[in-house]
Each structure stands twice: as structure tokens, then as C-alpha cells.
Amino acid sequence: MNLILCEPGELGAEGIVTLTGVRAQHVRTVLRVRPGDRVRVGVIDGPKGRGEVIAIEDDAVVLACALDDPAPDPPAVDLLLALPRPKVLRRLWAQLAALGVGRIMLTNADRVERNYFDTHVLDEATYRPLLIEGLQQAGDTRLPRVSIHRQFRPLVEDELGPLPDGERRLVAHPGASSVLTLAGTSGHRPVLLAIGPEGGWNAFELELLGRHGFTTIGLGSRTLRTDTACVALLALLHEALCRDEGAAPPG
Amino acid sequence: MNLILCEPGELGAEGIVTLTGVRAQHVRTVLRVRPGDRVRVGVIDGPKGRGEVIAIEDDAVVLACALDDPAPDPPAVDLLLALPRPKVLRRLWAQLAALGVGRIMLTNADRVERNYFDTHVLDEATYRPLLIEGLQQAGDTRLPRVSIHRQFRPLVEDELGPLPDGERRLVAHPGASSVLTLAGTSGHRPVLLAIGPEGGWNAFELELLGRHGFTTIGLGSRTLRTDTACVALLALLHEALCRDEGAAPPG
Questions:
Q1: How far is CA B194 from each of CA A81, B79, B82, rounded to the nearest angstrom?
Q2: What is the ipTM metric for this complex?
Q3: A chain contacts of residue B236, beta-carbon cutoff 8 Å
């Protein structure tokens, strides 16, 4: 936990917040704070700063927060993900938030098992704490927005629609050409990355995505598990966006 | 399972192999083969090819294999990893093999808990099947070589020693400059990537690695969990190596 995240409503007058439960335990037993110490604090979707420990009780730690750093920029990447197995998705939530994604759209696809939609891993009460865990690991405050789509075609045709100017859409498909095509994402915000089910998108899905502005990318000759592919592609995409920005001439 | 892997000793005369257990079950119930069908087959650390189904029995599938594709090149990246928590390491084995690493050196470090060394996740009987699972996912045959080092300093000073000509060494450290320094790895084989414990390397360890030719790299401002960092950095490194090769002038 590299950043203690609070809900916006938790901060009282003059930035006082009382941590309880897991966060209090972490501050007391892992960070081993004493009154007067300062810890990194942030507000979900809001600013970051420092919290000074003003009291330590049995199951509570009271902080006086000065949140002087503005909210981080929202992540430049959105994710359209064919719903993975519940076990895989459970592992993914924190990792996705840690890597930074603006939106997580979970969708049905031909090779998604229908019963995957019945899992409690799709309940906000389950995934929200996992997303927050990832943000606290990475030191970010921007909570990914999650939506669940049981029908792929209306999602692509009606909700996404034609590619808006200035955006970029990529679809990962095993065996497709390398990720070198990630170059040239400069200035495109957000980038929407689509990752298919374990068995891949079917021909209809790929064609539909192609007609809605998605360029196909791959990861070389290796076929990766969904969770590995998500982390690998998000890392590559963030790095490509940074590289493009670094390479762009000033002004 | 995109490739069925066999032990070298399993292949009999004329390439006949009898699959049992998990592999037979996969071929029968997931691939749903019939006699005459062909499946992708490989030999651990050896060639790949096709296996024709010549018999299906209750708990066995007999294949006649023609292994015409040479063994894949060994991965260009080796990993020096501070021993992570057993739960994290268990998740990592298959992912590391799927991404492709030549060697996995697991080491002690100041911020590694001593009891992490007592786990059965470090037993070859536990990790070898997980590595093979990752190879079967990715379609590779090159089994990573694993070694366990309870003392960091002798590992770096005596076993690794000075940086050999033509190799490259990188150490990941949170908050260090970006991975842009991955550029210029062209022609360096292998690249040895060192990834520290959750709390990071300590100053002595970083200094020791620096004196033995390791260049510090980071992943931007985000601090990632060990498993996320491993996958992200290996993906970036493989892509940088491909990019360099693609960019290098012929001859």
C-alpha cells in the first residue's frame, strides 16, 4: 500500500480522516507509524498529498491530511475485454487498476462461456475493493469505470459506433502482426484496447471491430493467457504513449 | 493448451507417443479429436510438429508425431528475481514460461522474508508442471532453467561476476527513469533483468548490482506488484529486442 485512499465523504473538516479496518491495520503494523509521522494519502478520483498521524487507537488511526497534489490525469487507455473466467478476472482487477485504465468494458463474445456472467466477481461490492487495492499499490487515485455488456454487437455498433476523431482503437489477436503498430498513437486520447477470450475473437467479431475502426495488433508468435496478455499489452501501450510524447517535438 | 509437450523419453520408435492423464483428457474433451486428426506437438527443449491421432482409449490417446520444425531459439532474456511471496510465485511460473525466459534465478534480498524459502512452490515437482503449462499455452518448447540462491552477494560477485562482453544487465527499481533505456539492447544476448522484492532493493544491493554492470530502469511513477512488474517488464523487453532487430540495417 503505497498510498492510503479515502472515499471523498470520509474527509471531514480541515482534512481530518479516521481510518479503520484494513487501512488502519496497515498503517499501524506495516508502516508502524507514530503520532507526528506522515503517510501518503489520496482521495478516490481526487487529489493526493500527505496525512499526519494525530492519534492512534486500538482499531483506528486519525490523520490530518493536506492534499496539495492535484488529481492525476485520467489514464489514456480504455479496455474492452471479453469476459474472462471468474478466477482470472479476480486476479486481474487490482492489476488493471495498478497499470492504469480509464474504463473497463467487459463484454460477451462467441467464445465466452455464458455462466461466467453469473459470478460475484462481477459485483461492484467484490471488484471495487480490488480496484482500490491496485490504485493504492500504484499510487494512483483514478478509479476505473466498469461496465458489463451481455451483447457484443449492440455494444460495438450502438455504444461505441464509428471511430471518433482523435481516438484510436486496437484489437489484440494471437498471431497478428507485432505490436510495432502501437507506434503512432501520439496525440490519440483515449486509446481503446480490445482483448478477446482465451480462444480468440471469431471472424464475425473481428470483422465487426475492424468496421468500427479497430486496428489488429499481436504479441508475436506466442499465445498468452488473458491475464498475462492484458498486463503485457497495457504495459506496451503505456510505454508507446510515453515514447511518442517524449519523441514529439516541443510545441 | 496450444501445444502438447512431451518429455524427450516419451517418444518411441517412429515418433509414437501415448498421452495419459491431463494431456489425454485435454485432447479428448477440449480438442475433441477423432482418429486421423492432427494436433500440435513438441518435445521439451526440442523440436515441434504435428501428431496424428492413431488411437483413442479410455484414459489414453496415441499419437504418431512428425516433428519437422526445429527447436525454437532459446529466449533472449534471463531473469534475476528476488524471491516473491509463495502465492505470487505460484502464479508467476506459468506466466514467465509463457512470456519466454532462459533462466530464472531466484535470490534472497534484504526485504525478502526468510520463510519464503521454505515453500514447496520452490520444489521442482511443483514448479516444473507449471512451467510446462506456460510453454504449452505459448507454443514454446524451451523450459526455463531455475536456480535458487539463498545469498545475494556471492550470487552477484562470484556467479555473475563482471559484465561479459555482448551481454546486457538491467535492474528494475520503482521511481527510476523510464524504460526508454531499453532501447539499444540490439545485439546483446542474453539480457539479464533483475527485479527486486515488494519493498524494493536496498541501497547496498542496488550499488552491488550497479558495480556488476546493471543499468537501472523503471516503469514510470507507478509501483507495481512483483507479478505485474515481471509480466510488464518482460513484455517491454521482448518488444524492445524485436524492435531493435526490426530496425537494424540488414547485414
A1: 31, 6, 8
A2: 0.89
A3: 235-236, 239
